[in-house]
Automatic annotation (TrEMBL), chain A:
This is Response regulator transcription factor. Keywords: Phosphoprotein. It comes from the Bacteria. Residues 2-114 form the Response regulatory domain.
TrEMBL record, chain B:
It comes from Flagellimonas hymeniacidonis. It comes from the Bacteria. InterPro entries: HPT_dom_sf. This is Hpt domain-containing protein. One of its GO terms (biological process) is phosphorelay signal transduction system.
Length: 235, 106
């Protein structure tokens, strides 16, 4: 399970980073000192869990929750017990941990998040087999162009656009990686890096933190490497 | 009897990793100094709301050093400041002085 940490205090960020490192069930994607920076990040990338401080200058933790659409699971971390009641009015908040956070209490919160995460994953994954989706329509010059999904080799984020490579043609489409990722079969396509999605069937080889797709060397971010390796049929 | 700060919590988090402990204490020292500076500045300028916010941040550090009564004082002071009331100023600043002295030696 991936997570991000949002806290304006460096001491707290360091402690939460350490507690996360000690827990084998989570991998920290990013750590933010402001909720605004985290919102910008979540416009492009998804996460499974957020450790969120309430008291932050200008933009508080509760402002963050009110702002993001479709929030992931959130564990509030705060030195103040007085917000607990208000916090639990938000369905996305699964736990409320009072600082300073012990390893035991932290692990309990992660366990709770993991159980919800696995249930949600099972609910969403079982009804429609991913292999059944074979085509995707993309908007190019006011035409809807049909793309054969298995022919897609890689997709790269390029500002407000994505650059899609297929076996025989490349396309520049006005969209985000997050949007297209939701349309692709998750058993074949994998987001290896904040700027890249790859078709895992097209992998030629993997070396350290990069993957070769056709003739393209594509970076693999450190947090995503274990999941990529898990998906491979290795000897 | 005056309450004494402790590194119990920090030791628990570090789990014997001396390098990480040093890093964490350095961060703590750097951050507490900045927060105390901000506290003094806001208070001097009569910005009680901002002073209260900084006291809240400092209260977390008071808890990290396991000063239970100190935390209660900080919490009350935090609320008082929102009403421009400084009656716990001396008590709070005494806690800060104790913490600074302790963490300097850590």
């Amino acid at each position: 399970m991936n997570c991000i940490i949002i806290d304006d205090e460096e001491t707290s960020r360091t402690i939460l980073g350490r507690l996360s490192k000690n827990n084998p069930n989570i991998e920290v994607q990013e750590i933010f000192h402001s909720a605004v920076n985290a919102i910008t990040y979540l416009n492009d990338y998804s996460t499974d869990l957020v450790f969120l401080d309430i008291h932050m200058p200008i933009f508080t933790g509760l402002d963050f929750i009110k702002t993001i659409k479709d929030p992931p699971q959130i564990i509030m971390t705060t030195a103040d017990q007085n917000y607990a009641l208000e916090a639990f009015e938000y369905g996305c908040i699964i736990d409320y941990i009072v600082k300073p956070v012990s390893q035991e209490r932290f692990d309990k919160g992660v366990e709770r998040a993991l159980s919800t995460f696995q249930n949600t994953k099972a609910t969403f994954e079982s009804p429609v087999p991913d292999e059944s989706i074979e085509e995707l329509y993309i908007n190019i010059d006011r035409r809807l162009v049909k793309i054969d999904i298995p022919s897609i080799t890689s997709i790269e984020a390029k500002g407000d656009y994505i650059f899609m490579k297929t076996n025989d043609k490349n396309y520049m489409v006005h969209s985000t990686l997050k949007k297209i990722n939701n349309k692709l079969p998750q058993d074949i396509f994998f987001r290896v890096h904040r700027s890249y999605i790859i078709n895992t069937k097209k992998i030629v080889d993997i070396e350290d933190h990069s993957v070769l797709i056709g003739k393209d060397v594509i970076p693999v971010s450190r947090p995503n490497k274990p999941e990529l390796m898990r998906r491979l049929n290795r000897l | 009897m005056e309450e004494k700060p402790s590194l119990d919590y920090i030791n628990q988090i570090c789990g014997g990793d001396a390098h990480f402990k040093k890093d964490l204490i350095d961060i703590f020292k750097r951050e507490i100094s900045k927060e105390i500076e901000s506290y003094q500045l806001y208070l001097k300028n009569g910005n009680y709301l901002k002073t209260s916010e900084v006291v809240h941040k400092l209260s977390h550090k008071i808890k990290i050093l396991d000063l239970k009564n100190g935390f209660k004082i900080a919490e009350k002071y935090c609320i008082q400041l929102k009403d421009s009331n400084q009656s716990l100023k001396i008590d709070f600043e005494r806690i800060l002085a104790t913490m600074l002295l302790f963490i300097k030696k850590a």
